[in-house]
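Quick note —
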Amino acid sequence: MIQNFLHFFADHFPLTGLHLDAASTFARDIDGVIALIFVLVGFWFILSEGVFFWLIFKFKAKDGVKAQYVAGETQSEKRWITWPHMAVLVCDVFIIVGAVWVWYNVKQNLPPAQQTVRVIGQQWAWTFVHPGPDGQIDSADDIALVDELHVQKGVLYHYKLESRDVLHDFSVPVFRLKQDAIPGRIITGWFEATQTGEYDIQCAEICGIGHGIMGARIHIESAADHAAWMSQHSPTRNVASAPSSPASVAR
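Predicted structure written out below.
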């Protein structure tokens, strides 16, 4: 129910989606919270500013008319503050419920992984360690690349995020994913891509003089394309297909 509510706002007020694709399972949920805040806060902002300027022009100073002092102590006067205040609190409840629901599902609830990748930030590059054909991280056929992450559409990934020096921030805008990388800690998060394509990865934490050039690319591939890429880049395959040495040929 909450998800449908947020998706309604994401679809009808596509603030983030005007500039970015939504390429993960939770991207529309986050877009929905942003749109919900925009609509509710925007409504009260326009209403309050409208009343504010209406009062200025309606009760502006007039020759021969003495200003009236309003203490705001009678019940009829207080209701102009109390009723809008209560309405704003009701709106806050909608925002809080939506935000907490999204936060829990994205940051606290960790669904079971189908694959795991290691993400390492350092001044000023990203290193991505992909599982090889055996599907397991930290094994002989791992594929390590700098500034290039390859994932398969429709597969739920866990990422193991770490930093080798200072604070970095692993940001994938089309996923609506943003997570600090903290030296001395390995932080586990998740994502599941919903469409193929090539997109930006950013460092969203100022990490030194080279922060502005610390960009990378994520390649979201179909099952067939990802299997082909994995086969071509697997270290074990390269070893197996390496040419024999001259000494062995001589023997």
